[in-house]
Write a structure and sequence with these properties.
The complex is a heterodimer of chains A (363) and B (262). Chain A has 363 residues and is mostly helical. Chain A has one domain. In chain A, 71% of the residues lie in helices and 2% in strands. The longest helix of chain A has 27 residues. Chain A is globular and about 60 Å long. Helix content of chain B is 34%, strand content 24%. In chain B, the strands form two sheets. A six-stranded mixed sheet of chain B has the order 6-7-8-3-9-10, sandwiched between helices. Chain B has a four-stranded antiparallel sheet with strand order 2-1-4-5, with helices on one face. Chain B is globular. The chains are: A mainly alpha (363), B alpha/beta (262). Chains A and B meet through helix 9, helix 10 and helix 11 of A and helix 2, helix 3 and helix 4 of B. Chain B: Pfam families: ABC_tran, BCA_ABC_TP_C.
């Protein structure tokens, strides 16, 4: 499979190689070289790298539905947050009696709310395998139900985009409520262990970065394989001429639903890897603005290429880290301006621009 | 004795009485405007039928009704004697064997000629089967054969978007052939074509008749005359004005009036 990928797109393989190298080297250099060495990467840069890779995976998931299937989903952040909450619930249950109130079963916020027993939907999350399953199942199920209802009624275009924004906004409001049992506006935090290892330790941080890198590469290869299959061609055809595909005998809504659910599952995995690296998950992850930002990453990187989404997510977030540290008040203006500039001058995004440059150089 | 009587099951195409398509008393209205008005028409198996009529006569609406895009307000549409098309949606009708070429060429421009034909190929079109689909030898031969028929063999790896207008129309006819239809609905195949292209299209359609029924909607009278060997149906204001050979139809005073106005 790698060989077909390689022939398919050299740039993409270079990018995969770079991700693999970075996910190994950054934590390695963090270990080997002493703090004063120029080659030392700080623990901070390890965790920020890991964060970028999770965002890259999230961008990739949106590119599948938007870039290939033509569904401008403005609620991708909801699936990311749900995956994050599933992982957060596992991490909360690992705290046990080391919490402030010391209740072996109930997380602090429940004790604080005077709850006597664990809500039923928190059962099972003490098991890692169960939480890992929920990381993909919960976003997948929501995407399935939502997609089944909307695609079957042939809701498309801007209406669908608005409904997806409403979906993530509704979840935001719901998760803010204390009675929901997900920690209200504080969310889930103060994690201690993951699989018995201290979540703050450098080894765990390095492993999380490595796992995020590997997961991104794996997701990229599987997505690539899907998009070069016949299903990928059907999906592209749906993007360009939806009704024509129906008259060829394909059930368009089934294809959209399949891609939508798969993409939601990827977003869930991205969220689950993100939460242990940043140490918190709260309802602001459901904010409609977050989902809009994902669209901007993909647009700037270049949609319908898969690796464009990765490039866009990493670049925009790197700029965000720099700018919000330096002059936080201009960040949103900068983001908006670069989105407009890219849309007007580089409609295929940075990657599309790069590819055309490459082609122009060839005789 | 009983086994001598062929009893087709519901859902199986039965053309034993001649017609492959039965349209009876079909009416469609959009906001009070009657696009089809109590229209009845029968298409025989293997027939090449031309459908003419002035703008707004209901030709495209008729195709929409047959392919499931528009639901009629009343009337019945049967495929053979047993298959009720009004109970089916677009993909089901297409799979049953009624395929359609649109007025505006609607090939998939970001895919190659070969890939366009591959998507149209008559095969299981479920999601999982499509994900793992691989072309076998017979299917490859079939695509080659259709590319030969429509004269696009040398363009196989070209994106459909860069084909000329005429080539796109042929590619779309090729996509219909890939679906192995029992009935082909062809909406304005020669609109915007050069004279030579029109001639080639006429030959192409004539070579395809017999094995399947073809319904051609066209404005170009010269083209219709060149392919209409059997019956021509004239639509006017949503119903059938007259039916007959091209000569009969052309000499019908009502047709002359409809086309030339009074």
């Amino acid at each position: 499979m790698l060989s077909t990928l390689y022939r398919q797109d050299k740039t993409a393989s270079w990018l995969l190689g770079a991700i693999a190298l970075l996910s190994v080297l950054v934590p390695l250099f963090n270990f080997i070289f002493p703090v004063e060495s120029a080659l030392h990467f700080s623990a901070y840069s390890v965790s920020i790298m890991g964060k970028y890779l999770c965002f890259a995976l999230l961008g990739l998931s949106l590119d599948l539905v938007w870039g290939y299937c033509g569904i401008l989903a403005l609620g991708q952040g909801a699936f990311f947050a749900l995956g994050g909450y599933a992982m957060g619930m596992y991490l909360m249950r690992q705290i046990g009696n080391r919490s402030v109130y010391g209740n072996p079963l109930l997380p602090d916020f429940m004790v604080f709310l005077n709850w006597q027993e664990l809500p039923w939907y928190w059962y099972g999350f003490e098991q890692f395998w169960f939480a890992a399953l929920m990381v993909v199942l919960v976003p997948g199920l929501l995407a399935f139900v939502f997609g089944w209802l909307t695609f079957r009624s042939r809701v498309t275009g801007v209406y669908l985009s608005i409904i997806t924004q409403a979906l993530t906004y509704a979840l935001l409001l719901a998760f803010f409520r204390n009675e929901m049992g997900f920690g209200g506006n504080n969310g889930l935090t103060d994690f201690k262990d993951v699989l018995g290892f201290n979540i703050q330790s450098e080894a765990v941080r390095a492993s999380l970065l490595l796992i995020s890198g590997l997961m991104l590469i794996l997701a990229f290869m599987v997505s690539r394989w899907i998009m070069i299959s016949k299903l990928g061609r059907v999906v592209t055809a749906v993007r360009d001429q939806e009704s024509r595909v129906r008259f060829l005998g394909y059930r368009v809504e089934h294809f959209k639903l399949w891609v939508f659910v798969f993409s939601a599952m990827l977003a869930g995995i991205a969220g689950a890897l993100y939460v242990p690296q940043v140490g918190i998950i709260n309802p602001s992850e459901f904010s409609p603005l977050n989902s809009l930002e994902i669209v901007i990453w993909v647009a700037i990187g270049g949609r319908g290429t898969l690796y464009g989404a990765i490039v866009g997510a990493v670049l925009v977030n790197y700029a965000k880290t720099l700018l919000t540290g330096w002059a936080p008040e201009i960040w949103l203006f900068f983001l908006g301006a670069s989105f407009i500039l890219v849309t007007v001058f580089l409609p295929d995004g940075l990657v599309g621009f790069w590819q055309r440059r490459l082609q122009a150089q060839k005789p | 004795m009983n086994e001598l009587v062929h009893k087709p099951k519901t859902g199986e195409l039965d053309t034993s009485h001649g017609p492959i398509l039965y349209l009876e008393a079909v009416s469609v209205s959009f906001d009070g405007f009657k696009a089809l008005n109590n229209l009845s028409m029968y298409i025989d198996a293997g027939e090449l039928r031309c459908l003419i009529g002035p703008n707004g006569a209901g030709k495209t609406t008729l195709m929409d009704v047959i392919t499931g895009k528009t639901r009629p307000d009343s009337g019945s549409v049967f495929f053979g004697q047993t298959i009720d098309l009004l109970q089916m949606d677009e993909p089901a009708i297409a799979t049953a064997g009624i395929c359609r070429k649109f007025q505006k060429p609607s090939v998939f421009e970001t895919l190659t000629v070969f890939e366009n034909l591959e998507l149209a190929l008559a095969t299981n079109k479920g999601v999982w089967t499509t994900l793992f689909a691989k072309l076998n030898g017979t299917q490859r031969d079939r695509i080659e054969q259709v590319m030969e028929t429509i004269g696009l063999t040398e363009h196989r790896l070209h994106l459909a978007g860069i084909l000329s207008h005429g080539q796109k129309q042929w590619l779309e006819i090729g996509m219909l052939l890939m679906q192995e239809p029992k009935v082909m609905l062809v909406d304005e195949p020669v609109a915007g074509m050069t004279h030579q292209e029109v001639e080639r299209t006429a030959q192409l359609l004539l070579s395809l008749q017999g094995e399947r029924s073809i319904i051609v909607v066209e404005h170009d009278m010269e083209f219709v005359r060149s392919i209409a060997q059997h019956r021509v149906t004239v639509l006017h204001e949503g119903s059938v004005l007259t039916e007959g050979t091209m000569d009969e139809v052309q000499n019908d005073p009502r047709v002359v009036q409809v086309y030339l106005g009074d």
